[in-house]
Write a structure and sequence with these properties.
binds zinc ion; 5-stranded mixed beta sheet; single chain; 6-stranded mixed beta sheet; 366 residues; Creatine Amidinohydrolase, Chain A, domain 1; 2 domains; alpha+beta; 18 strands; Creatine Amidinohydrolase; 33% helix
């Protein structure tokens, strides 16, 4: 089934109108892929899609890329206005948006160089981020998107399963990360988006970059990785023990697993996102590790690894069926080890469904 960009554009225009925006300006990013299926190279010349309530969308594109845009079928969805090399594309945007525009939203990945020029040319307009429109639309996945996220999750699970059949002990973090990358591609992904392998004390740094450190017997290893298939991302974390784990690790692992379970049980339509974070945090606090859970419980996932909704204190946005996000509590003991367990879940009509199915029990490997 082809993606219905026309209805996505219509919903974006409608949401823009209902939130008091005169225009939403979308530069090349996941927002543009979502709305129009267009993914041009990221270059300094301005390309932007302008969505306005009650009007047809307009794509402003450098003339040398006009062909690229029409080949992607943009002319079926929007009026294409190509600008010549010596023309000012920002003036063109002003003409489309209208000088009297008072509230303009820009996609959050817009380069500052574009935003500064637009602000200078539309001095009366208030500029806001487009997350209120785009985050909201993109956070609820349709059946096709959900299928792709399930497929991406399956590939990630398979990559992990195959990695754990090989020996980790005495290999470097970098070597294991590289092997994981190869497996992510072999299982069917188009792209590897990231591979974190943190052994021993390095596991206590949640965004650790793999190093030449050798994985030793008796250590915990945190592996957090993802790939992309047909545009949609995976993101999964497991913590394993290589041989006999550090004495406190099994207990910490149990607490993290219980925190994830508690978060999963909390998920249901209309529950504020922050309640899910609170549920995971309560379990970790009760076990005495509250200070060591140093990040939010989760983030939305789709065309981007991190997108709306964020599962964090302060986000009282109600969960909706079709939302997909990670649940990834962690406990990090500086200088010793870290434990994180992460799965992608989707909100159903009554609760949550996990998209990852790799075992969550502490695995002791070699
Ligand atoms: Zn992750
Ligand atoms: Zn994540």
């Amino acid at each position: 089934m082809p993606t219905d960009h026309r209805s996505r554009l219509a919903r974006a225009a409608e949401t823009a109108g209902s939130t008091g925006l005169d225009a939403v300006i979308v530069t090349p990013s996941a927002d543009l892929i979502y709305l129009a299926g267009y993914d041009p190279p990221l270059l300094p010349r301005l390309t932007c899609l302008i969505v306005r309530p009650g009007r047809d969308p307009v794509l402003v594109v450098p003339r040398l890329e006009a062909r690229l845009a029409t080949d992607a079928g943009i002319d079926e969805l929007a009026e294409v206005r190509a600008w010549q090399e010596t023309e000012d594309p920002y003036a063109l945007v002003r003409a489309v948006v209208g000088e009297e525009a008072s509230r303009v939203a820009c996609s959050h990945r817009m380069w500052a160089v574009h935003l500064l020029r637009l602000q200078a040319l539309l001095p009366e307009a208030g500029f806001v981020g487009a997350e209120g429109v785009m985050g909201r639309l993109r956070s609820i996945k349709d059946a096709q998107e959900l299928d792709l996220l399930k497929r991406a999750a399956r590939y990630a699970d398979e990559a992990l399963g195959r990695l754990l059949q090989t020996r980790l002990e005495t290999r470097t973090e970098r070597d294991v990360a590289r092997a994981l990358g190869t497996l992510l591609l072999e299982t069917g992904n188009d792209e590897v988006t990231f591979t974190i392998v943190g052994s021993g004390p390095n596991g206590a740094s949640p965004h650790h970059e793999p190093t030449s450190r050798e994985i030793l017997f008796g250590e915990g290893v945190v592996m957090d990785f993802g790939g992309r298939t047909d545009g949609y991302c995976s993101d999964v974390t497991r913590t394993v023990a290589v041989g006999q784990p550090p004495s406190e690790l099994p207990r910490v692992h149990e607490v993290v697993l219980e925190a994830q379970e508690e978060a999963l049980r909390t998920i249901a339509p209309d529950v504020p996102a922050q309640e899910v974070d609170r549920a995971a945090r309560r379990v970790i606090e009760r076990a005495g590790y509250g200070d060591l859970f140093v990040h939010r419980t989760g983030h939305g996932i789709g065309l981007e690894e991190h997108e709306w909704p964020y599962i964090v204190e302060g986000n009282d946005e109600p969960l909706r069926p079709g939302m997909c996000f990670s649940i990834e509590p962690g406990i990090y003991l500086p200088g010793e080890f870290g434990v994180r367990i992460e799965d992608i879940v989707t909100v159903t009509g009554t609760g949550a469904q996990r998209l990852n199915h790799a075992t969550r029990e502490l695995q002791v490997v070699r």
